[in-house]
Amino acid sequence: MNGIDRSIAFARTRDGCRISHFAHHVVVDGTVADVCACTIDPQECDGGALAAWARWCDRVPIDRIPGLMAECGAVCEGQWSRTYTVVHLNGAILEIDGESFDYPLAAYELEWSLRPQGAAVVLGPSAVLALVDFAIDGVLASRWPPAGVLERLSIVDTPHSPYPPQHRANGAPRPVGTGNSGVIDDATFLLLQRSERWQRPLNALYNINRRNLSVSHSTVAEHPSVAVVIDALVAEGEPTIASSNWIGTWHLQSPDGRCWGRRPFAINLHVSELLEAADWAVSPPRAACICDPIEGEIFGLAPSLLVKALPSATTLDEVRS
Amino acid sequence: MAMPRACEQGILLTVGMAWPGGPPVVQETRFAAHCEGAERRSGPPPVEWGVPDADTPPATPPELALLRLKEFVTAVGQPASLRYSRVIAQRWILEPFAGWRCRPINVFALTGRLQLANGRFMPVGWSGTGDGLARLQGGAARQHLVRVARNAGEANATAPGDGPAVLAAQPAALIAHEAIGHFAEASADSGVDLRHRLGCRLAADDIDVLDDPTCKAAACYEVDDDGIMAMGATRILKDGVLVRQLHGRASALAAGDIPTANARSSQITLPPIPRMSNLIVLPGTSSFGELVDSVGDGVIIHHLSHGFSRGLHVEARIVLGEIVATGRATGRFFTGGRVEERVDVLTGCMARSRESELNPNALCGKHGQILYDVGTVAPALQLSRLRIVG
């Protein structure tokens, strides 16, 4: 039996000026759910959202600021309640609840051509999550995982989420691809996942039913001292395991510190080949987010992966606007 | 000027059947929400707003939906994981001059997948206005689905290539939706000016395309989500050239144009953005057989899914295609791979069939908002070339 009695309220801003609010109360009792009025005033979260946005605005190059999103909110369920703050940059999670991750803290930029030759390539958590999510939806055969694709990764469908409004403490993880038995969970989950969009049909566009993805890799290595970190990837097409086009953003990590990459790059790749080339996890699974143009934001957990060498079929070009 | 206000109240019914095993699932979600400007909240609107009362259409009985879904799965005869979604709601929009305007929401979607004989998945996507239960019970769309599933289950893998093709009505509608419909929509951000697209040639010079929210195809509404009354069809493509854009109130104001009643939101808690309603590609004069005959050596695309457009790029997954040799369909089917094209792919349209069909899948996602009722009515199209990738 599903039982949820949860209030969610948040304020979010993308420009440090205009704030959108949302507040609702979700009650699920078996097969009946209500989305009704919430007693929490989301305007109380305005200050937190604006402060978080301003904090990162000064650290991000001006060209990237349109991708900066800060959200501050509150989640209450019974006696339990918590507030949260999430800041992401086109999906790269910069901060959750005051904990910052490994991103540059100043707005300096580096030209792609000036990156150190021989720098290792690391896929950041949001890039990994985007690639895995894309590959899952791109697999058309009934057996999951198909031979040779994503075999080295552990990919779990879990009720736990780094994004508090859609986190559920109860419920068991399960392997991806067996989601057919969990339709009740999915229906409930969707009321929590980006819950301001509850009217959309469930999993309308994709093949595999799932909740939050949690990705891990069993082989761990030290983070290379000099690395180009691909912090976010956005697919330019529909999911496929054939070659696909992506737009990525990057930053450089070196002993001298971290520095944002000046322009995005266009990359053509086979998702499975690129993930197979990612041999080591160089961080534990961390909060990640995909900015999907159709589904909206999809949160999950994924490690940073070190790519030993880009697959030969991969092409990578700087985007010049 | 007062902040725009809107509210809605209704029910989302979800009925799911999963393969293998697992009991069928029914969930009813009642919802109420209101917004004033960017302030979006759940719950009924404040009494002082003075929203009129209106009768909500009767909700679909869950047991009836489940029965029809079971009958559908039996008739299709393939292992299936499917969900039936149904939204019934009353939406009210405060129009500055006309006062409260009612916009009933009455839509359904059938989504999921079939497992085919060759172990592949075939996506299922039907949607539109009404409860859709009659479609589940039988009719041409169900027959088409069964035929496509049977043939795709025995089909070979798609071979990449670039050559002449016939798009049957469903793939023609999907490509027109992606290449013409989305290109004609004004930007969701009214600060982004897309007027430079006007005058672009998107199709052959005898093709006209309309958008009509009043034609009772997949979408059917009298007022859009800005409260603008729909007055009939907007001709967006004339002689193959983009002549009008689809606007909501804000985008029209920014572009110095008039709204075309195309402001649509998937639910009232999300801002309306310019979206198609029913896209209508006007038919031609040929029979389907004549189109195939004219192709010579090429392909027929019988069914596409997962259409996608971004900028000038359009693509879709091939669910079922067929080899054409010396102007005859060969019965040699293929599946998998994609069509990858530019938005002007229909400039290579040589002829159109005289019968048009409504694409049974009217789901459309954009900016995180999925609408159930974005229709496309199109005839089969003969193209001088189509790019297929593996």
Net shape of chain A: globular
Q: Please report the distance between the alpha carbons of the first and last residues of chain A.
A: 53 Å
| Secondary-structure element string of chain A | EEEHEEEEEEHEEHEEEEEHEEEEE
Whole-number total of structural domains of chain A: 2
Put simply, the count of helices of chain A is 4
The poorly predicted ranges of chain A are 178-183
Strands side by side in the biggest sheet of chain B: 3-2-1-4-5-6
Q: Tell me the greatest interface.
A: A-B, 54 and 66 residues
The counted number of beta strands of chain B is 22
Q: Poorly predicted ranges of chain B (pLDDT <50, ≥5 residues)?
A: none
Query: How much helical structure, as a percent, in the residues of chain A?
Result: 10-25%
Helix/strand/pairing category of chain B: alpha+beta
Overall 3D form of chain B: globular
Structure description:
The complex is a heterodimer of chains A (321) and B (390). Chain A is mainly beta. Chain A has two domains: 3-105, no CATH class; 110-318, no CATH class. Helix content of chain A is 13%, strand content 41%. Chain B folds into two domains: 5-152, no CATH class; 157-390, no CATH class. Chain B is globular. At the A-B interface, strand 2, strand 3 and helix 3 of A face strand 1, strand 2, strand 3, strand 4 and strand 5 of B.
